[in-house]
Amino acid sequence: MTERVHTVKESSEGPTAEDVRVQLEGRAEVLEAALRRAATLEAVLRGRGWKRRWRAHPTLVSEWLAEEATVEEALERTIRRARVEGWSDTLPVMEGLRELEARRERLKTLVRARLSRLVHVSGPPVLKVELARLDGLVGKRATMTLEPGEVLLFQADRLSPVSSGQTLPLLVSMALLYWGLYVLLLALLRGNGSRAGVALVAFIVAPLFVAWARAGRVWMTSRRLLWMPTFGETVSVPLATIAPGGVHLGPTHDLKVEGEPRLQVAHLADAKALATLLELHSQPPLLGRVRSGVRLADVVVFPASLWDAEVAPRSGWVVLRPGGVSFIPEGAGRQVLSTVTGRESTLAADVGRVLEQLRWLSGTEFDDWLTRLVTATGGLSWSAWDSLKREEAPLWKPFRVSRGRQVLMGQMEWSAQSSAELILRSWPDAVTPGKAKSART
To answer: Which segments cross the bilayer (predicted)?
Structure first.
């Protein structure tokens, strides 16, 4: 209700304040309560520490929203009756009405300003809509405690320039540091001991303090992305709020996520891996599929090479399944991620990481997606019934399987060898390492 009330300035023959309250049939009390809520909310939103004050009034927004329809009706009826009957502007009801309208206009600006710092907003502000959205974002303080059924998928720290590959800036900083130490040492030797000593300590400690203050920890769970800085409160971004294309990876390991709320973290360890996981788990087919916390067991993924007498060998990833073996070439990360998400991706994802995440699906779904990926990337699939030849070497040695002139060879991790042995036992005419040893003895 933004339309100003214009009535007569004064009228000696008009209704009294008490007459007006009676005629409004309880609407005056509704407007007075709305004015108190608006004043409280305006005080909460102004100045620093507004999130803390917001959480100190946990029912304020819910009460506002519950009464909003009643308040709007009271505003409309009061304004219309004041115009028709020519109520004086000096009546307490009219003064309160003007103050309420003014506060509601200021609240629109305040709420939009607070909300726009957290999420993308557009269009004219609608107070009740944006209040509800803001309350959903800051009404509850985020914690790093996993909720029941929540699975931790990733964790890392905000890192230093050394591990993010920024070698040149680091060397320049070190050179400046040593030059400064040299100058301060000369000052100490020339007799300016106390001042130079203080400056020396400040020169050494300040960069360390800045690096520590900007540090933090990142978690990604099956439901949300969490950022816990050294200073400030934890930020929680539900995966379901991340829009398609809302994950951006910068050149210096900077990660920007367009969710509710927005999140940007600079110099993040293994930022590409996290960006890949966010792309996969913020939309189908993997969105919400990690609730069980159990991945498909009869799958083994490991790096390998495809050898062919007619072409140069290709590096890639092998996938062992009871039904056979598949090969996805290295360097196909964009195609793999684009195929799974159904949208063009610029992120050169790690193929093996994407394949491992597909293990959260059922066996039928996994095989279906594997077939799509093989087709999209120009890989290959061999059925276990395709007259495959496999060396009878133990699985801690390089794994080798061939079909015609093509050979797949790679080394699986020790932790995957037991699963691989069970898979290979299901292949027709397969000889497991244990059986080969028994045959020789």
So the answer is: 168-189, 195-215
